[in-house]
Amino acid sequence: MEYLDFELPIKELEDQLDKCQVIGEESDVDVTATCKQIEKKLKETKKNIYKNLTAWQRVQLSRHPDRPYTLDYVKALCKGTFLELFGDRGVKDDKAMIGGLGKINGQSFMLIGQQKGYNTKTRQYRNFGMANPEGYRKALRLMKMAEKFGIPVITLIDTPGAYPGLEAEERGQGEAIARNIFEMFRLQVPIISVIVGEGASGGALGIGIGDKVFMLENTWYSVISPESCSSILWRSWEFKEQAAEALKLTAIDMKKQNLIDDIIPEPLGGAHHDRETTFKTVEEYITKSFNELNKLSTKDLIAKRMDKYSNMGEFNE
Q1: Other Cβ atoms within 10 Å of 27 Cβ, number
Q2: Is the pTM of this model over 0.85?
Q3: What residues does each domain of the chain span?
């Protein structure tokens, strides 16, 4: 298990507990009382740390290398029924954007999301979860296919942003994202979006126009990353913590501003501490949301989606 900087007090107590248990096993000394004291202190320390996380600490948790990624959720939710589909029918297949058909509790869904890598080789293969224009065009192709057959769409968002390279801009990165947003507003099937990690900029919004939008507890959603914001405003990454606070990018902030529908709770310590519980909770939210949306007519579904986004924000004419 990899520990973040603010989790080091937890690591120290867990190491102490391990040593205490080893002493008890390898000697005749009764260390039961000592172990219980350490366990109690460990539990209290975890509660104090994870219930008082700063915005930057939540950003760090969203990037934890042990955190489950999109394909982990897909495999857990679909239980072996997932069929991945490839290509945008124009340029190539973007490995940073995955999509395909799968069943959750007997109901067919089109699942689409960004996929990060687990090590250096797979991170390069997945382009660190940053999709090119063909990734967004593939996503739109799959959404249109789902619409044709009346299949609801689930999008799982986890990206540091759309790929900002020259070749991506040459192939129309901005147009591809804008087209997705435009088409998702009019899509005639339910759309459920879940932010499972990072939700950065248009890269996230390109598959994020949902009838229901959820954020896991330790994720973030913003127009820009704290580091990039810091580099623009202060010409340095050193102020990323202040930027994270100012951006109001946490799930709690987003819920207060009515920009998402609900927050999906995570196990104490984050999704990576108890993957099975996290998968089960996400499945419950998806199933409940689909049952609600499935009752609406196509006309009402689209009208409600349009109204939802039209009413976001405050402005004066």
Answers
A1: 9
A2: yes
A3: 5-52, 58-310
